[in-house]
């Protein structure tokens, strides 16, 4: 939602030069949104191991990611 609000306020989908502050290390979905928005820096207060201790399962999602061996042509 923060990315959406920033894009709306700035009138662009490109957040180059912008920084994001968040409570925890971004999950895979949020990290992709950050990358697509071209935000250059992310500051977070706790990492995946910390959030695992309080019941989040982000580590599981990162473990599920497998490198894609297909070549992607853009």
Task: Considering the chains and any ligands shown, give keywords for the structure.
74 residues, alpha+beta, two-stranded parallel sheet, 2 strands
Word description of this protein:
The chain is α+β, with helices and mostly antiparallel strands and 74 residues long. Helices cover 42% and strands 16% of the residues. It contains 4 helices and 2 strands; from the N terminus they run αβαβαα. It has a two-stranded parallel ribbon with strand order 1-2. The longest helix has 9 residues, at 2-10. It is globular and about 35 Å long. The two termini are 28 Å apart.
Give the N-terminus to C-terminus distance in angstroms.
Answer: 28 Å
Give the overall shape, derived from the CA principal axes. globular
Q: Which strand order do you get reading across the main beta sheet?
A: 1-2
Overall mean pLDDT: 84
Question: In what range is the share of β-strand residues?
Answer: 15-25%
- Our count of helices gives 4
- Share of helix, binned: 40-55%
Structural class by SSE content: alpha+beta
Stretches with pLDDT under 50, minimum 5 residues: none
Cα-atom radius of gyration: 14 Å
List SSEs in N-to-C order: HEHEHH
Q: Let me know the largest β-sheet.
A: 2 strands, parallel
Could you give the count of β-strands?
A: 2
């Amino acid at each position: 939602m923060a990315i959406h609000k920033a894009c709306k306020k700035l009138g662009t989908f490109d957040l180059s030069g912008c920084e994001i502050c968040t409570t925890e290390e971004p999950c895979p979905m949020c990290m992709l949104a950050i990358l697509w928005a071209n935000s250059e820096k992310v500051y977070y207060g706790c990492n995946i191991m910390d959030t695992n201790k309080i019941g989040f399962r982000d580590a599981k999602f990162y473990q599920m990611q497998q490198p894609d061996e297909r070549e992607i042509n853009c």
